[in-house]
Automatic annotation (TrEMBL):
UniProt record similarity statement: Belongs to the short-chain dehydrogenases/reductases (SDR) family.
Keyword check for Oxidoreductase: yes
Record-given protein name: Glucose-1-dehydrogenase
Keywords for this protein: Oxidoreductase
GO molecular function: oxidoreductase activity
Keyword check for Oxidoreductase: yes
Record-linked Pfam families: adh_short_C2
Annotated organism of origin: Ciceribacter naphthalenivorans
UniProt xrefs under CDD domains: SDR_c
SUPFAM superfamilies on file: NAD(P)-binding Rossmann-fold domains
InterPro entries: NAD(P)-bd_dom_sf, SDR_fam
Source taxon at top rank: Bacteria
Length: 250
């Protein structure tokens, strides 16, 4: 044990999750990076973080399943024995479709990972951090999306709906555990230049959407990470239940 605070980042091998891991390590955090399929990326990131002096472990686990969540938190307990922050980042998007074309399988996957998985990970974090359970408090940062506000018509209405659920969950949980030393907030990224757009079938979406953003450019993963690290930090000691937009004004 190093005595440094520990953050668990779900879906942390690339994109926003990896940017949060890098920022956290540079600011004195030890890091547990969760991944599902991108093992090589996770190992490369861990090597990079080790070089900064941060203790880093990686763990494979699908947050859309109970088995995956159990594996993640078992690794946390084994390797670190503490939890100071959870960055609830793991999420998926599907190919652009209209609502009448959504399959049940698509919706089941979307909500299993984007909603139920986040709620279940937060529950495990509360069990470890809440003063009501003998913990020392901590911070949960849920990664939402401006899609929750904008609706993503004609493309990802189901994704937007899943993020809307996370916004409501953030507010509710923040009130439930505020007296137990846990702050719960969400960051709502707008159009961020990561490879999530490719997984949704529109790899150039970030650049194509630039003209619709008041700042006239997509955001960077590091800019989202800055907001997450603020909410994790003591600088946000009186901030809970907040939904922080990182969207270039959109």
């Amino acid at each position: 044990m190093t005595g440094r605070p520990v953050v668990l980042i779900t879906g942390g091998s690339r994109g926003i999750g990896a940017a949060v891991a890098r920022k956290a390590a540079s600011q004195g955090w030890d890091v547990l990076v969760n991944y599902v399929a991108q093992e090589e990326a996770a190992r490369s990131l861990a090597t990079e973080l080790h070089a900064t002096g941060a203790r880093t472990e990686i763990i494979k686990g699908d947050t859309g399943s109970e088995e995956g969540i159990a594996a993640i938190f078992a690794a946390l307990d084994q390797h670190f024995g503490r939890l100071d922050a959870l960055v609830n980042n793991a999420g998926v998007v599907d190919h652009a479709e209209r609502v009448e074309d959504f399959s049940r399988a698509r919706l089941d996957r979307m909500f299993a990972i984007n909603v139920i998985g986040k709620i279940r990970c937060a529950a495990e974090a509360v069990r470890r951090m809440s003063t009501a359970h003998g913990g020392q408090g901590g911070s949960i940062v849920n990664i939402s999306s401006m899609a929750a506000v904008l609706g993503s018509p004609g493309q990802y209405v189901d994704y937007a709906a899943s993020k809307g659920a996370i916004d409501t969950f953030t507010v509710g949980l923040s009130k439930e555990v505020a007296a137990e030393g846990i702050r719960v907030n969400a960051v709502r990224p707008g159009i961020i230049d990561t490879d999530i757009h490719a997984s949704g079938g529109i790899p150039d979406r970030a650049i194509a959407m630039a003209s619709a953003i008041p700042m006239r450019r997509p955001g960077l993963a590091g800019e989202v990470a800055d907001a997450v690290l603020y909410l994790m930090s003591s600088q946000a000691s009186y901030v809970t239940g907040a939904l922080l937009n990182v969207s270039g004004g959109r």
